[in-house]
Amino acid sequence: MSTAPLPHDPDRASTTFRLGHLSDTHIGYEAYKALSASGENQRSVDVAKAFVTAVSEIVESDPPLVIHSGDLADRTVIPIRLILLIRQQLQRLAGIRPDGTRRQVVLLAGNHELPRQRKEACFLHLFDGLPGVQVVTRDYTQLRFPDSGISAGRDPLLEDVVVHALPHDALKTTDFDLVRPLPGTVNILTAHGVAGGSELYLRSLGREFTIPTEVLARAWEYGALGHWHKQGPVPLMATGAGADTEKGRVWYAGSSENMGFGDLKENGTRRGWLNVTVRAGRDPVVERRFVPIRSMLRLPVLDGKGLDPNAITDALVERVRAASTSGAVVGQIVENVPRDVWSLVDVAKVRSSAGDALHYEVSLRSRQREIAKDGEAPAKPLARGLGDVEAVLVERANELLAEHEREGALVLARELLALELERTASADASVAAETLEESTAEAVVDGKQADESKVVVS
Ligand SMILES: [Mn+2]
After folding, report:
1. Statement to judge: residues 76 and 192 lie in one domain
2. Ligand 1 centre from 268 Cα, in Å?
3. Gap from CA of 260 to ligand 1 centroid (Å)
4. Is 247 part of a structural domain of the chain?
C-alpha cells in the first residue's frame, strides 16, 4: 500500500510549524494497593505525574499547536481533583507563548472517556470555552484556526491548517469518503482507534472499528493517532523500504505511562510524546520524546518443573535479588508447578525479599493451554487465531480470485467475520476491546487480578 503523494504547492512551501502530539494519558487509572503519602493510589499519582511532565516539556518546547489524541482520562467519570488537575494542565498547554500568541490545543475523545449511553455527555466538554482549547467527542469534525496572526492571538502559521478529528465513536458512523485533505491547506488527521492494516488491526480483527487503511494513506501532512500504547509510526505507512522505523506520516504517540503489565510488551520502558515538525507538502519530521516513569518489570519466567517448594522459594528470591526492584512494579510468572507444591512455597519470604518494590506479584501459569513465553508477541491464543484467519483469507483469495476481485472479496470476508464475531461476543463491543488479550489460563496467587489478562490496547 503506497501513500498518496502530498500536493506540492509552491505558495506555501515554506509553511513549517511544530506540533506536540500526546495521547492515552489515562488520568484516573489506579492499580495495586500502594498509596502515596497523601493517601492516593500511587499508580494514579504516577500516571498524573507523567502527564504533567509531558505537559511541562511541551510548554517548554513551545509548539503553536498541541493534539491529545484521546483517552485523556481512564474512565468516563473521574474524581473532581483529577478533573481540576486536567483543567490546570490544559490551561498551561493553551497558555500565552513567548511571542504573545496562544498555543492551540485539540482534545479528541477516546473510548475510555466516552460514555456508553448516548444521553450522557463526555466530561471533556467541561473544558469547552477554555481559551485555545477545542474539544471533539462525537462526529468527524474539521477544525480550523481562523483569524490567526499575532493580532488575533494565534500563530500565523496555523492560518492554513486544518485538523480533521475522528473521535473513537465516530469510527462507527463516519462516511470515510468525506474524510479527505482539503486542497490548498495543511492537513492533519487525528483519530482514536485501530489503524487498518497494522499489527494491532490483525490482533483485534472484528472486535474494533478501524480507521481504514486507504483513509490513513490519503495526503495528510501528519496523522496523530491514539489508542495503541506503543509509540511509533503505523508500520504500513512507513515510507521507503520499511527498514527505517522512524519514518511515516501517521504515528501513535503511545501512552505516557504503563497501564498494566500488558503495556510492557509494547516497549513499556519508554513512554512520552512526539515533537512533530509539520511541513506543507512534505513528510513530517518526528522526534520521540520520553518522560521519566516508574520502573515496571517482569522478572524472568521460572520453570518450576521438578522443583520442590524450597527450591522454588529460593529461585524466586534469587530472581528478585538479581533485579533492580527498588520502587518498581514487579511481576513474576511461574510455570509448571502443581497446586499442591505451590501451596507450600514460602510466598511471604519471597515478598519480603522484594520489600523495596512498590508492588510485587507472582502469577502461576498453567500449561493446559499452549502459551508462548513473554516477549514472543503476539502470542495469545485469541490473537493467533484471528491472525491465522486473516492469513488464510488472503492466501485463499490469492489462489482463487483474479487480482481485481481480491480486495473487494477480502473486505466482504472481513466484514462477515466481524459480524459473526460481534454476534457471538457476549459482552458489548467496548468490553470486548478491553479483553483483547483474552484469558491466559493463569491463576493469580497474589489475590489480585492478573495484569496479564488486562488491557493492552486501550
Ligand atoms: Mn483507547
Report:
1. yes
2. 16
3. 14
4. yes
Q: Where are the alpha helices (DSSP H) in 161-260?
A: 170-173, 199-203, 213-216
Q: Which residues surround ligand 1, an ion (CB under 5 A)?
A: 71, 110-111, 227, 458
Its domain, for residue 307, covers: 296-375+437-453
Q: What's the 411 CA to ligand 1 centre distance in angstroms? A: 24
Distance (angstroms) between ligand 1 centre and the Cα of 371 equals 26
User: How many angstroms separate the alpha carbon of residue 395 from the centre of ligand 1?
Assistant: 31
Q: Cell 490473537 appears where?
A: 383
Are both 73 and 211 inside the same structural domain?
yes
What is the chain's Cα-based Rg?
A: 23
Q: How far apart are CA 47 and CA 55, in angstroms?
A: 13
Answer yes or no: do 197 and 124 share one domain.
yes
C-alpha 378 to ligand 1 mean position (Å): 19
- Shared domain for 88 and 224, answered yes or no, is yes
Cα torsion 108, 212, 144, 224: sign: positive
Confidence of residue 367 (pLDDT cuts 50, 70, 90): low
pTM: predicted TM-score of the whole model, two decimal places? 0.78
**What is the whole-number distance in angstroms between the Cα of residue 89 and the centre of ligand 1?**
20
CATH number at residue 212: 3.60.21.10
Residue 398 has pLDDT above 80, yes or no: no
Q: Tens digit of pLDDT for each residue in 301-358?
A: 999 999 999 999 999 999 999 999 999 999 999 999 999 999 999 999 999 999 999 9
**Whether residue 285 is found in the same domain as residue 142:** yes
**Residue 96: inside a domain:** yes
Q: Report the distance separating Cα 5 and Cα 262, nearest Å.
A: 37
Query: Are 192 and 303 in the same domain?
Result: no
Measured in Å, how far apart are the chain's first and last C-alpha atoms?
26
